Amino acid sequence: NSAGMQLAYAQSLAERNALTQLRRYLANRKPVFDSAIEERNWMRLLATYSQDPGHTVAGWNVKHPENRQYVLSTLVPIRIQKGDWKGANELLNTFPEMQALDQRLALSLAQKDTQSSMQLISKITQTRGLSAQELETASFQLVSMGQGKVAAELLLRYWPFNQAGKLQHSLTTRLYSQLAAHPDWLTAENKARLARPLPTATQRMAQAR
Asked: In this structure, which long-range contacts are made by residues 131-134, counting pairs with CB atoms below 8 Å and at least 24 apart in sequence?
């Protein structure tokens, strides 16, 4: 059978909810797809119906480069959301160590691994800096893990969050609340930085509080 026919048959098993038969079929077939879309659909079946999705997809020899991005953008986050740390890690291990740093950070934060998270944040900031969403997620998780000082130090690097868009208020509130509770965390240099008037009335009101 052609790769396309194998995909069609596997999809029909999924539609009929014939899961035992489908898992067996997926485990015993290694079709080679000329189409990136067909390969992605097969990978989606592996990720959805395999007994050990992370391990199974990690073992799949991706032919089409765009489907490597599919692994990162879709399959790794799903494993993290499901609490499948092992599966997410197996998928990430198919990429070079300095790639997929954002997903590696998401996994370490989900695992509440402060040391690994800070190492990854350091690697990311050496190359591009954290996005507003990464900063929001990382600082929130660090505070929730009892690492408020680490979160405050991280937030201070990016204050006053002028590029954060709609997350500016949340990041500002988190930083100020941590520093209000622990004023001793502030160095003289950072006190002087925070005391400089900011450009907008909203920012100055937050400073005053």
From this structure: 131/102, 132/161, 132/163, 132/164, 132/165, 132/167, 132/168, 132/171, 133/167, 134/102, 134/105
pTM strictly above 0.90 = no
Q: From 33, 8, 96, 38, select the one nearest 25 (Cα to Cα).
A: 8
With a CB cutoff of 8 Å and minimum separation 6, the contacts of 149 are 178, 182, 185
103 is written with which tokens?
A: 């997903």
Region 91-101: mean pLDDT is 92
For residue range 135-170, what is the model confidence (pLDDT) as tens digits? 999 999 899 888 999 999 999 999 999 889 999 999
Q: What is the DSSP string of 163-192?
A: T-GGGHHHHHHHHHHHHHH-GGG--HHHHH
Q: Position 136: which residue type?
A: E
